[in-house]
Amino acid sequence: MEQELHIAGMTCEGCAAKVAHLLRQLPGAEEVRVDHAQGLAVIRSSRAVSASDASAALQGTKYQVVAAAAVEVDNRTEPFALRTYYPLALVIGFITLVSSITSWSHGTIDPMRFMAHFMAGFFIAFSFFKLLDVRGFADSYAGYDLLAMKWKGYGFVYPFVELALGAGYLLVAHAWWLNVATIAVMGFSLLGVLRAVLNKQRIRCACLGTVFNLPMSTVTIAEDALMIAMAALMLLPGS
């Protein structure tokens, strides 16, 4: 059977992905589709799902099951706030610090070793956050990645691709195929990010999984572009 529930508090695709993930945990739930613009959740299940059951599933979040007449979709644009990106800046800062220490040699930082260690730390750390909630990440990633939109399974595979790339930069950092693979993976990911930003989609960036609610922005573009640039530099002769 299919049921419709009106959900208040959703403002973006990330919200819809989170609500879908939580409602999917309901007993009997087989498929959940959520539209944040309409404030609507459609649940296909083997048993009836009550509003109280759905409310319990959403407990502790800003989302609420409401009557249809009470639904009000908030489409306002939230102002940019540096504190929003604090978790991302903190993670990048730690990776930079550790990479600087491990690449220090003879009174200076070895740039190639720094890049290899930075990329290893980047991929391993970011895959860790995604693996904390793989299903939630896959839901969010399907909102903007070009391949994940067509094949949702890619969202479940992607964290392991990042983990493999991270391990590669610890073991065989200067292998040409590793850097080519990084350029291909991050370049394709960048296409989806560019599309979302240029279309002004208000969706959550899935770079740190579902642990932190980071909005999609030019910061995400810079993050992907940086990894592509580093991999390209490591492909240069003599690197």
Characterization of the model:
The protein is an alpha+beta fold and 239 residues long. The chain has 9 helices and 8 strands. The protein has helices at residues 13-23, 51-57, 86-102, 111-131, 134-141, 146-150, 153-171, 176-198, 218-234, and strands at 2-8, 29-35, 40-45, 64-66, 104-105, 108-109, 204-205, 214-215. It has a 4-stranded antiparallel β-sheet. A hairpin with a 2-residue loop joins strand 5 (104-105) and strand 6. Helix 4 (111-131) packs antiparallel against helix 7, helix 4 (111-131) crosses helix 9 (218-234) and helix 8 packs antiparallel against helix 9. Mean pLDDT is 84; it is low at 67-80.
Lateral strand order in the biggest sheet: 2-3-1-4
Shape from CA axes?
A: elongated
How many distinct helices?
A: 9
Tell me the Rg in angstroms.
20 Å
Helix content: 40-55%
Note poorly predicted spans: 67-80
E-strand count: 8
Q: How do the helices and strands follow one another from N- to C-terminus?
A: EHEEHEHEEHHHHHEEH
Mean pLDDT: 84
N- to C-terminal distance? 60 Å
**Beta-strand residue percentage:** 5-15%
The main β sheet shows up as:
4 strands, antiparallel
User: Which structural class matches the secondary elements?
Assistant: alpha+beta
Q: Top keywords for this entry?
A:
239 residues; alpha+beta; four-stranded antiparallel beta sheet; two-stranded antiparallel sheet; 8 strands; elongated
